[in-house]
Design a protein that fits this description.
The complex is a heterodimer of chains A (240) and B (501). Chain A is mainly alpha-helical. Chain A has one domain. Chain A is built from 8 helices and no strands. Chain B has a two-stranded antiparallel sheet with strand order 1-2. In chain B, helix 7 packs across helix 8 and helix 7 crosses helix 10. The chains are: A mainly alpha (240), B mainly alpha (501). Chains A and B meet through helix 1, helix 2, helix 4 and helix 7 of A and helix 1, helix 2, helix 5, helix 6 and helix 7 of B.
């Protein structure tokens, strides 16, 4: 009986939300308010002002690069928060520590797979501006290869490959890199985080070395995301 | 080049704090003694930049930056008008003083290894709040809300006690709920307007209001509730007492003094500029939202004070007092009159100064004597004369005695209530002053006029680096009480630009 008032309240909220959704513009229809000149410019098939065919990379690293700086900072603060909570304390797995495995099949497969995963991750990171993927996706794959290593060979050996100290350094320096590229735009006479406007060479759209600041920022984000994933797992596994 | 630096000054303020925070973990590992000076240097630079911007904004100038050179609606806009400059000054000024205190205090509260990360989280939180203050884009605002939410939780969780961890978890959950509501609201707004820039959304909203009235009202409600959770408006304040009392003292000061204010600011900015015509309209829904805000604010003021009255732990009492004080800010927002709004804004400054002063003074007492219970503070006026004097000034300012800054905001709010023909508001303010007196005065009385235990007679004042910030904050409480003109100049300019009355 205690829950009846809460349920009634929830039903009321649900009713209002259904009304709202019934009134809101439909999904998947061409004639909606969110289909406007903003989207047209973002999705322009001839990317001469950004030099990058991948529309997602264009938006997150150029038109709205400031948001992505914030997102990169969210990752940084997540690691910072995890470290502030976990450093010097028994981690969440203190009672059942992550030790790695002796299973020869797992170890052999991991050994074989990890190099390919990493090469693919580097490909995804460096080609983020011309094909789907990019720093965030590629960085997660790179971080994932480290997580696989950590689970198979144990956190001790993983920390010898990438020590928490080194991970933090990558984390901090790649975040710094983002701001420095942004400040580069400012020093070149345009505004913070400017790309073509600041004179970053856009190159030929579709080539590997193109896109100016978009490509540079993407590289940093790739390393940063990988370091974030690795650091979080190291902290959770009690290595710090 | 100099020209582009001045033109980009707002972003540079955020960038310099971010850069310092990115470097902090490295310094913590390899050059531990560089941490504190770098953090302090970054905040001093940010404060200087804010002061330069405020000098321009007070004349009515608005400094606008189009990030990456993309003009809105395509790119992200960041702007500093009088209101933003005011917030920047409050944030950087108070954060700077709290940081100075932190340098001496934090080694006692945290494990040595966690100190570097503490500075990181602190700076990230400040940078995020600065970013929120200057954001003119819904999603940009949201990104900085996220950074500040996690940063604030980290400041609570950094203390290695079970209570702090539990409080941080509660805070994280409710902060995430608040963020979720705000994000949902942003989604709805984007769906009906197709824009994220404040000015463009506001313009579109007036055009599409006839077609999607319910969507817009629901978006406004979600926005208000989301920010009310994060700003700890009664009865959505349940996370605050634990989070603010179990955190290390500098965290309590920054969380109570600044963090809850920035969410109130964000709500104020959105209600007045984005939802402007809808929120200030004369129709039933608009007045309903305003009345709801006024009611919750009133409940906050009375409820927060009543809960504070029964607390035995001094930090917990201060935390509940923050629930009451945030009510004043929301009261001003809900009144929607020039002097109500001015009162809300000036109270953001005043409460930031007072509450930071009180939390730091309470922290100093705990640092030296370990006493947290209000009844144990007997004789403290003799043992820690400077700290207790500052605490007394803060307490008197909180009650709202003339000559202290609390009086200025309460007076303006009183006038605002009368102007809006809401005599109830005026009554609430007087009642709340009495309630404040009921729980602050006994502490002062005991500290000065009840002798403490015999064996505790010696003076145990805290070191100078901790005393200076407490003293400066206390003096600022008096300064802005007798000479509020400079702050009011900025606030009046802010009110004038916010709404063309």
């Amino acid at each position: 009986m205690r829950h009846v008032p809460a349920l009634l309240l929830l039903l009321m909220v649900a009713y209002v939300l259904f009304l709202t959704m019934a009134e809101a513009p439909a999904f998947g229809v061409v004639d909606v308010p969110s289909r406007n000149l903003v989207v047209d410019r973002y999705l322009d098939p001839d990317p001469e002002e950004t030099g990058v065919p991948n529309a997602v990379a264009r938006i997150i690293f150029d038109y709205r690069a400031h948001d992505t700086l914030g997102e990169a900072t969210v990752l940084f603060v997540a690691v910072g928060a995890a470290a502030a909570v976990l450093v010097g304390r028994p981690g969440p797995f203190a009672t059942r520590p992550v030790t790695g495995t002796d299973d020869p099949i797992l170890r052999t497969v991991a050994r074989l797979v990890i190099p390919f995963v990493q090469v693919y991750a580097v490909y995804v990171i460096t080609h983020g501006h011309v094909s789907p993927g990019g720093g965030f996706a590629g960085g997660t794959i790179l971080g994932g290869s480290f997580v696989l290593y950590l689970f198979v060979f144990g956190p001790g050996r993983a920390a010898r490959k990438l020590s928490p100290a080194r991970g933090e350094m990558v984390e901090g320096l790649t975040a710094l890199w983002y701001i420095l590229v942004g400040l580069g735009g400012l020093l070149l006479g345009a505004s913070f985080l400017a790309n073509a406007a600041a004179g970053f060479p856009l190159g030929v759209p579709g080539k590997l070395l193109s896109g100016g600041a978009i490509w540079l920022i993407g590289l940093g984000i790739g390393l940063k995301v990988a370091a974030t994933v690795a650091n979080l797992f190291l902290h959770l596994a009690g290595e710090s | 080049m100099m020209g582009s630096v001045t033109a980009n000054l707002p972003v540079l303020i955020v960038a310099v704090v971010l850069i310092a925070s990115y470097l902090m973990p490295l310094f913590a590992r390899y050059r531990r003694d560089w941490c504190a000076p770098t953090a302090a240097g970054a905040l001093v630079a940010a404060f200087a930049g804010s002061a330069a911007l405020a000098a321009r904004a007070v004349t009515g100038e608005v400094v606008i930056v189009h990030l990456g050179g993309w003009s809105p609606p395509w790119g992200i806009e960041v702007a500093v008008d009088a209101l933003t400059a005011f917030m920047l000054l409050v944030l950087t000024g108070v954060a700077m003083l709290i940081l100075v205190y932190t340098i001496s205090d934090i080694g006692h509260e945290l494990a040595a290894r966690a100190v570097g990360w503490y500075y990181t989280s602190f700076l990230l939180l400040v940078a995020a709040m600065l970013g929120m203050a200057m954001a003119r884009d819904l999603f940009n605002l949201y990104v900085f809300i996220e950074v500040s939410s996690i940063g604030a939780c980290a400041l609570v969780a950094s203390r290695d006690t079970e209570e702090a961890t539990e409080a941080a978890f509660k805070y994280l959950m409710l902060a995430a709920l608040g963020s979720g509501l705000v994000l949902f609201s942003i989604g709805l707004l984007y769906q009906v307007t197709g824009n994220l820039n404040f000015a463009f959304v506001a313009e579109e909203l007036t055009l599409v209001y006839g077609r999607y009235p319910h969507v817009i009202w629901v978006a406004m409600c979600f926005m208000v509730v989301g920010f009310a959770v994060k700003a700890a408006l009664f009865p959505l304040h349940v996370w605050l007492p634990d989070a603010h009392s179990f955190a290390p003292s500098p965290s309590s000061a920054v969380l109570s003094g600044l963090v809850i204010k920035i969410y109130a600011y964000a709500m104020l900015r959105l209600l007045y500029t984005v939802f402007g015509t809808q929120f200030l309209g004369a129709d039933l829904a608009a007045s309903l939202i305003r009345v709801t805000l006024l009611t919750l604010a009133t409940l906050s003021i009375i409820g927060g004070s009543l809960f504070a009255l029964v607390q035995v732990d001094v930090k917990r009492m201060l935390a509940y007092s923050s629930v009451a004080q945030i009510g004043y800010v929301f009261l001003g927002v809900g009144l929607a009159t020039p002097s109500g709004l001015a009162a809300a804004l000036i109270h953001v400054l005043n409460h930031a100064l007072i509450k930071a002063c009180l939390f730091l003074a309470a922290g100093a007492i705990i640092y030296r004597t370990g006493k947290r219970r209000t009844v144990d503070l007997a004789g403290m006026g003799r043992r820690m004369p400077v700290t207790m004097a500052a605490f007394t000034i803060g307490a008197l300012a909180m009650i709202g005695l003339p000559l202290f800054n609390g009086f200025v905001s309460k007076w303006l709010l009183f006038v605002g209530g009368m102007q809006a023909r809401q005599p109830v508001v005026a009554g609430v303010i007087i009642l709340s002053a009495l309630l404040n007196a009921l729980y602050y005065l006994p502490i002062i009385w005991r500290a000065y006029f009840t002798p403490g235990p015999e064996q505790e007679e010696s003076q145990v004042e805290v070191p100078l680096p901790m005393l200076i910030p407490i003293g400066v904050l206390a003096l600022a409480c008096i300064l802005f009480g007798v000479w509020p003109a400079p702050a009011l100049a900025l606030v009046n300019q802010a009110v004038a630009t916010l709404v063309p009355w």
